[in-house]
Amino acid sequence: MKSFFKNVLANIVAIVILCAVFFIFFIMLLVFSSMGNDKSVSVKKNSVLTINLNTNIIDSPTEEENELFNIGNQNKNVLVYDVLEAINKAKTDDNIKGISIEADNINAGLTQIDDIRSAIEDFKKSGKFVYAYGNGVSQGSYYLGTVAEKYFLHPAGMIDLKGLATEVTFFKDFAEKYGIGIQVIRHGKFKSAVEPFLRNDISPENKEQLSTLLNDIWKNTSSKMAMSRKIDTAQFRVVVDSLYGMIPDQSLKYKLVDKLAQKSEYDELLRTKLALKEKDKLNKISLSNYIKSFSSDEKSGDKVAILYASGSINNGDKYNDIFSEKYVKYIKDLQDNDKVKAVVLRINSPGGSANASDEILFELQKLKKKKPLVISFGDYAASGGYYIAMAADKIYSEPNTLTGSIGVFGVMPYFKDIANKNGVRSDIVATNANSAYYSSLNGITPYGVTQITRSVEGTYKRFVHFVTQNRKKTFEQIDEVGGGRVWSGVRAKQIGLVDELGTLNDAVKYAAEKAGLKSYKVSSYPKRMSAFEQIFSNLDEDNISARIIKNKIGKANYEILQQITNEKLKSEVKMEMPYQIKID
C-alpha cells in the first residue's frame, strides 16, 4: 500500500512539474513573440512593396484571432485601412519603386479586394510599376492581380476563373428522418436564412434574389478584369465559360496573362525593371512590414475614430464579433472622448440578435447628437448590420456590399419524435397557462406560436420604422424593398437604402469635413488585443470545442448548427442574413 501511494504521489509531482515547464515555455513564447512584433522596420532603397500569401487582410481588430500555437503569425494580420494607407504612402515614397502582387490565394473579402485594387490603380498614376505573378491562382487573387500592368503565370500554373455560384444546403428531410422538429416564424418572403429547415429546394423568391445579387457582383468584377486585360466583354465571358484559365497556354492565348515564366525568371524581370546590378539584392518588403515602418502619433490632436463592427451581433461582452455590452461601452467612451470629433462606424456584419442590435442602435443615436456619425459598409451590412446603421448622418456602401435584408425570424427546434422513438417522454407541471409554451422535447404550443409571431411582426415594424426615419421614406416604400431581401451596394444606392457608393477612406474624409476638421488623426476602436490577451481570453472549454467543430464542418454549417443547439440563439428573435459571397 505504501508503494502504491508513493507511485501515485510521484506521478502527481511529475504532472505538476510538466505543467509548470509547459507554462514557462508558453510564457517565454509569448514574450519572444511580442518582442519580435515590436521590432522597427526600415525601408531600403530600390524596394518593391509585395502583396504575398502571408498577408491576412482583416476588416476589424476583432477578427484577429491567434491560434494557441500560431502566435508568430500575428504581425501578418493587417487592417484593410492600414493597407490602403500603406499603398497611398508608397505612391510618394522614393524608396518604393513598384508593387509586386504574388498572392495565389488572397485572404480578404470582396469589398476589401475592391478597395485595394482601387488604391493600386491610384498608385499607378505615380508612374511606378505594378507587376503580378501567379501559380495556382484563385479567382479573387486574379481579380486583384489584373490591376497590374503585366501579369505573369507559372508555365504549369492555372487560374481558377469561373464566375460566381452559390450552393444552398437543405436539412428538412434530415430533420424529419431523425425526428427533429423545427418551428420557424419569419417576416419577409425573401428571409431565406431559415429555408434550409423549411424546404428541400430553393424558393422562387430566394432564387430570384440570389441570381440578381450574383449577377450584380459578377458584372462589376468581370467588367474590371476584362477592361484591365483589354479583352472584349463578350470574349471575356467565353473565356470564363470555357475555363480557359485552367490551361496555361490558353491563358496566354486568350490574354489572361502576358507571359509564362518561372518564379526565378519573374524575379529577374523585377531586377531588370529596377536596373539592379548582378551583385545587388532584390529588396522586397511585405505589406505588414511596410505598415510597421511608419506610424502616426495618436496622443495629441483632433481625431476621427473608426469603430469597427465586424461579425455576428450578439448579447454579451466578448471581444470577438459584435457583443452589445462591449459595443455600448465603446460607443459611450467615444461619446465622452473630447479628442474624438467625429466617428466612422465600419460595419461588416450579416446581423444577429434583434435585441442586441436595438441596444447598439440606441447608443449610436445618442452619440450622433454629440458628434458626426458616418457609416461605412464592408462585405456585409444586412439585417441587424443594416439596422445599427440607422443612426447615421450619412451611409457609404461599397458597390459589392451585401446590403439590406430588412426582415426578422425566429427558429425553435424540438426533439419530440426522436426522443419518443428512443423511449424518452416528458410530462409538464406548471403554475400558469403558458409556463411551458416552449420546451426542447414538446416544441411550442399554438398560443406560443401566436405570441412569437406577434413579436416577430412587432420587431419587423420597429425595424422598418427606424429605416423610414433615416432614409426619409414611407413604411410602404421600405416594405417594398424589405421583406428580408438582400441587395448589392449598387442597387441599394439606386433604391435609396444608402447615400453614396464609396470606401472607408471616403467615409473618414466626409466625417472630418462634417466636423470641420482640416488636420486630424485617425484612431481605430476597439484597440487590438495583445497576443497574451487573445490567447487567454479564448481558453475556456466552450471556445476550444467551438473552434474544433467550426474547423471540421466549416463556418457556414457551424452557424446553422448554432441555431439548433445554442440555447441563447434558438430562443431569440433574429435579424440575420444567410449569405456569404466570396469570389474564390
Automatic annotation (TrEMBL):
Subcellular location, principal: membrane
Xref: Gene3D superfamilies: 2-enoyl-CoA Hydratase, Chain A, domain 1, 6.20.330.10
Location in the cell: Membrane
One family name in Pfam for this protein: Peptidase_S49
Keyword hit for Hydrolase: yes
Keywords: Hydrolase, Membrane, Protease, Serine protease, Transmembrane, Transmembrane helix
Name of protein: Signal peptide peptidase SppA
Gene, per the UniProt record: sppA
